[in-house]
Amino acid sequence: xxxxxxxxxxxxxxxxxxxxxxxxxxxxxxxxxxxxxxxxxxxxxxxxxxxxxxxxxxxxxxxxxxxxxx
Length: 70
Known about the structure:
Layout: H1 3-21, E1 26-28, H2 32-41, E2 45-47, H3 51-68
Parallel strand pairs: 1-2
């Protein structure tokens, strides 16, 4: 349960250090809301998803398409 809070704290610390050093900060965003939060922290480059996320979204789209087809 404490892992998300620890990860968020580490992300804030890393972002602050990168900003202070004038270094580009690249982060992994797992959703549009996550990307917004990462940009707010100061991320200047973004990875938009992992292979797993692409597979999940493609599978969900296929399920929707085939379910709608009847």
